[in-house]
Amino acid sequence: MAKVLGMGNALVDIITRLDDDVVLRNFGLPKGSMTLVDLDTSNFIQVETGGLLKSKASGGSAANTIHGLAHLGLETGFIGSVGND
After folding, report:
1. How many whole angstroms separate alpha carbon 82 and alpha carbon 85?
2. Taking the domains of the chain in order of start, what are their residue ranges?
3. How far is CA 72 from CA 3, 9, 15, 77, 80, in A?
4. CA separation (Å) from 9 to 25, 36, 52, 79?
5. Alpha helix ranges (H) inside the chain
6. Distance CA 63, CA 47 (A)
7. 43: Cα separation from own chain's centroid
8. How far apart are CA 33 and CA 53, in angstroms?
């Protein structure tokens, strides 16, 4: 059986439901897109949107692909880093 190893960015998606575009405009974030931010910016946005419900999910192209292949029965592994690892 095939073995697949993925190497890539170990991203964390923070998902927040918004009623309008005000928060996006305040932070200069384009609607319907993914924007990489550093830890300071992420912390600032989370404090400023503190009252909004958020969910977190692991992500990244390589990690998502490996996850899918594992569900198909392949033997998989993933190597990634977060921040300054």
Report:
1. 6
2. 3-73
3. 12, 22, 27, 14, 21
4. 27, 11, 27, 8
5. 22-27, 39-48, 61-71
6. 28
7. 15
8. 19
Tens-place pLDDT, residues 3-47 = 999 999 888 888 888 888 888 888 888 888 888 888 898 888 888
Report the alpha-carbon distance of residue 5 to residue 14 in Å, rounded.
Answer: 26
DSSP letter assigned to residue 34 = -
Residue 74: its pLDDT value, please? 95
Total length of the chain: 85
Tokens of 33: 């897109």
Angstrom CA distances, 44 to 6, 29, 48, 52, 65, stand at 31, 14, 6, 14, 30
Contacts of 42 (CB under 8 A, 6+ apart): 14
Tokens for 71, please give them.
Answer: 């569900």
Say if CB 30 and CB 24 are below 8 A apart.
yes
